[in-house]
């Protein structure tokens, strides 16, 4: 397969105006055979690769990705965790933009403004993520901005997670027929699955003795939390979803679906092979996979078969995991791009202007499985919500605020587009209540938020006394343990239409998501960009005259 990665580095400077550097990519998204668990199946490749190419850039860089959709279905890619300030047009969700028709191309253009860290991109359309189209996006600190650890010898990307051998079309048929996709078939690590004792296993990465490496790890699975660990080595956590953390040392780390982090690992043990181990968490049947990490001077001497044990399961395991979550702290003295510039460091001193309590639920509607938030199960319409708003015809596509700020009584489920009207620049508290028996993870587009608490039981206003109002990590994904709650805080200072979704693909596909409509009353370029002329139009806005563009600065 022909690979066409064009990664140009252009620094445009025109007189006194210096523009931030650009990175250009040209991506061919196509089907191809992959076998993450050893079983060949149709996968989604980018330039022939699975996982796809890495986007490697620096804070404030401009990213231009020309995506050629060579699948047989419409496609959108999202860059989860990239805030797209003023620019939900580039967010790649079905609520903001029309998908790229099969056989055509569309160019994403966005800036990674004031962000650092580890992220991944993936398709948001038609369960495509179950077949691939996934890759890492790394944002480095700008030169001269000190990073709170020594430059590692190298950086190693690890995309791991649960995997189904069926592929997205078969899985989608199951969901469309009203059933769950059930349990995954295994765990993949960078597109492969390894077994202990496999003499033919190729090393995933090789480390020079005495050197320290940065492993950037994301859980790109569909529903399963994963614990990962290195045989014989500890990990120093340095970054979590775009925040430099207090640098604690861990034997193993829980990583929930949609989450990314960076750890430092030093090659200071007996030179030989070691296993990187990934095990499923909180599932009935444990799934696991290993990958070989080689010492350059170890002569390929095989790893010992004894694997470091996983953390406990059941309620003890949840308590273990909650404790680990509480140990994640933001390093307040590390200088870096602040993930939420307007949100300020002193988030604990800002008065909450709105509390939104969100409860997930599952129900059968007309004999078919649906998931929802506060009794509303979201469905995408042919006309994206944002476009309906921009063209001034929202009422033709959706009703604002069907979903309320409080979970309803009972288990009624309404199936409709779910949009919450939010006030620009409000400081909101969102409480996630999980009354189900399975763990949840949620991702909010367009923002990072302070993850101030996770506790078992039900939330009450008194629980605010237990919030971490000092050094909670600013991040974009939060997990909620069974029969527990989690609380986050953020300033809604980024105008646009932003998706809050379950990161568990079957749940978001069957309705466990909503959109925040954050409109700036000024309707000015100061607060929000205009739609690009190149954006495909669809649904009822296709034949409508373009509205007057936002002006001003
Ligand atoms: C994209 O990939 C497909 C499948 O490998 C190939 O047939 C096609 O020629 C590629 N297109 C371009 C523009 O390279
Ligand atoms: C990634 O980007 C950083 C910062 O621009 C640069 O130092 C590094 O060499 C790049 N790595 C690769 C593999 O291109
Ligand atoms: C499609 O690709 C062509 C060739 O690279 C490019 O000139 C054009 O701008 C792209 N179209 C869109 C809508 O991005
Ligand atoms: C936080 O960052 C500072 C500044 O880079 C660094 O010196 C310090 O060791 C870090 N603190 C912790 C606890 O990791
Ligand atoms: C926050 O609320 C308190 C109590 O209502 C009020 O006294 C205080 O002035 C408010 N602070 C800000 C910054 O608005
Ligand atoms: C959304 O909320 C704002 C502020 O409360 C209000 O002015 C506006 O009318 C609301 N819009 C809709 C469509 O409900």
From TrEMBL:
Domain Plastocyanin-like span(s) in chain numbering: 29-143, 155-297, 385-521
Domain of life according to the entry: Eukaryota
Pfam families (alphabetical): Cu-oxidase (PF00394), Cu-oxidase_2 (PF07731), Cu-oxidase_3 (PF07732)
CDD domains: CuRO_2_AAO_like_1 (cd13872)
Keyword Glycoprotein: yes
UniProt-listed Gene3D superfamilies: Cupredoxins - blue copper proteins
Matching SUPFAM superfamilies: Cupredoxins
Keywords: Glycoprotein, Signal
Signal sequence extent: 1-18
Sequence similarity: Belongs to the multicopper oxidase family.
Protein name: L-ascorbate oxidase
Organism: Penstemon smallii
């Amino acid at each position: 397969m022909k690979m066409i990665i064009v990664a140009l580095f252009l620094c445009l400077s025109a007189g006194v105006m210096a523009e931030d550097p650009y990175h250009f990519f040209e991506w061919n998204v196509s089907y191809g055979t992959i076998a993450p668990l050893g079983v060949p199946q149709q996968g989604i490749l980018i330039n022939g690769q699975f996982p796809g190419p890495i986007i490697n850039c620096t804070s404030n860089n401009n990213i231009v990705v020309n995506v050629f959709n060579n699948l047989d279905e419409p496609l959108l890619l999202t860059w989860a965790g990239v805030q797209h300030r003023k620019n939900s047009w580039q967010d790649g969700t079905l609520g903001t933009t029309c998908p790229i028709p099969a056989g055509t191309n569309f160019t994403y253009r966005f800036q990674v403004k004031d962000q650092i860290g580890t992220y991944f991109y993936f398709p948001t359309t038609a369960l495509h993520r179950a077949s691939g189209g996934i890759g890492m996006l790394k944002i480095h600190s700008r030169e001269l901005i000190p990073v709170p650890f020594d430059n590692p010898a190298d950086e190693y990307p690890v995309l791991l997670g649960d995997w189904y051998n069926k592929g997205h079309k078969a899985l989608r048929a199951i969901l469309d027929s009203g059933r769950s996709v059930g349990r995954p078939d295994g765990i993949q690590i960078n597109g492969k699955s390894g077994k202990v004792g496999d003499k033919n296993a190729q090393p995933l990465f090789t480390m020079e003795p005495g050197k320290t490496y940065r492993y950037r790890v994301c859980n790109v699975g569909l529903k399963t939390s994963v614990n990962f660990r290195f045989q014989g080595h500890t990990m120093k956590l340095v970054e979590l979803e775009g925040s430099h953390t207090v640098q604690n040392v861990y034997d193993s780390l829980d990583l929930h679906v949609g989450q990314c982090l960076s750890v430092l690992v030093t090659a200071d043990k007996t030179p030989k092979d070691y296993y990187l181990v990934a095990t499923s968490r909180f599932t009935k049947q444990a799934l696991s996979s290993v990958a070989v990490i080689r010492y350059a001077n170890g002569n390929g001497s095989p790893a010992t078969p004894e694997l470091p044990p996983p953390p406990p399961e059941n309620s003890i395991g949840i308590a273990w995991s909650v404790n680990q979550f509480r140990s994640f702290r933001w390093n307040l003295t590390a200088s870096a791009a602040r993930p939420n510039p307007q949100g300020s460091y002193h988030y604990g001193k800002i008065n909450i202007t709105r509390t939104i309590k969100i409860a997930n639920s599952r129900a059968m509607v007309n004999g078919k499985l649906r998931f929802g938030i506060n009794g509303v199960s979201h469905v995408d319409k042919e006309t994206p919500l944002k476009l309906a708003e921009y063209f001034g015809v929202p009422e033709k596509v959706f009703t604002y605020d069907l979903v309320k700020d409080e979970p309803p009584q009972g288990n009624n489920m309404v199936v409709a587009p779910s949009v919450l009207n939010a006030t620009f620049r409000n400081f909101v508290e969102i409480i996630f209540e999980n009354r189900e028996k399975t763990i949840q993870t949620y991702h909010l587009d367009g923002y990072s938020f302070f993850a101030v608490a996770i506790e078992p039981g039900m939330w009450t206003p008194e629980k605010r006394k237990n919030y971490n109002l000092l050094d909670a990590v600013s991040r974009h994904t939060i997990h909620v343990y069974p029969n527990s709650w989690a609380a986050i805080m953020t300033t809604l200072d980024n105008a646009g239409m932003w998706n809050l979704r379950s990161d568990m693909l079957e749940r978001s596909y069957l309705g466990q998501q909503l959109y925040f409509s954050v409109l700036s009353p000024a309707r000015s370029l100061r607060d929000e960009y205009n739609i690009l002329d190149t954006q495909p139009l669809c649904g009822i806005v296709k034949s409508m005259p373009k509205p007057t563009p936002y002006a001003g600065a």
